[in-house]
Amino acid sequence: MRYLTAGESHGRELTAIIEGVPAGLEVASSDIDRELARRQSGYGRGGRLKIETDRAEITSGIRHGKTLGSPIALVVRNKDWENWTEIMSPGVVAAASDSRAVTRPRPGHADLTGGLKYGHRDLRNVLERSSARETTMRVAAGSIARRLLGEFGIQVYSWVTEIGGVKAEFAGAPAALFRSAESSEVRCPDGAASKAMMERIDKAKAEGDSLGGAFEVVLTGVPPGLGSYVQWDRKLDARLAFALMSIQAIKGAEVGMGFKVASIPGSEVHDEISYSQKGKSARFWPRKPGFSRKTNNAGGIEGGMSNGEPIVLRAAMKPIPTLYKPLRAVDIDTKKPFKASVERSDTCAVPAAAVIAEAAAAFEVASAFLEKFGGDSISEITRNYRGYLESVTGY
To answer: Which of 262, 217, 216, 254 is CA-nearest to residue 237?
Structure first.
């Protein structure tokens, strides 16, 4: 399973084409729109949310509410396009429009390096595509993957753990933490920390600054054996790290204990294995009887493969680089210094980044799931999966 996205931040529309989704999966536009709305939520977001309310249009690959097995095409139209029709026109426009060229690169953005790489003298050619607006279609594609995983009892959750140095403290089952996070404006399950985070965002906004943070993504119900140890690029943790690091502004990713393993002995890191003969077989993973770990420091992945425990991922997001107290840069034409310009910007987008990461992780796990239990239809995959669970239970 794979997908491609296309479109510019202020272009006519954004597009995604998803290939490899099996036939017979029930998908509704509301499934996609719900995730798009979650991506647009979060305290500290900027002015564009007052303009755009994203809705997905399914243009191929789904008929009468079910996937056909052919490529799925999704479109999200930019409502702000009417204000950018000349600037972003795909056709030839009057030379006067050149006077609106962007020649001032913003620190922390792709502007300057992208201009150097592609030879653009108008940096709008860079910033329009490098914008995090592109993640709209990643969330749309991820919503299809999420529906696929849900057919087999795999759930995807996320919550914010830190914003601007304010760290949350919480414990509990993933589903309960997720519900608490969804009721928080900063998507944090710790109520006291949520309030402190919002206050910190308000302070940064008043100062013309921005804030980064960290979040956690957890997938439950993942069976053992997704991914592989036989080649470097088939390792599930490597693929998930790639997916997280591909999200704009993400500068670090962890699996399980992550960087903490560097400072403690192995006896406190590795998860002891147990076996239980009690319990009844379930329709999905986990099944009993079977093997399990007493702890989950590995974050559900050992040797590049899912081990049957929940997959636990974390990522760190840098502060949004567009500041209302702008940093200094140099004009690419005049070579003179200036203070970087401001396009509409968020003060903090960590809650949204967590939702995007859910989609990215869901797509990678769904791809690995199809590689393991592949078939052309949901019914065929279900037969393959149930046969595997019988084998695992009897191991």
So the answer is: 254
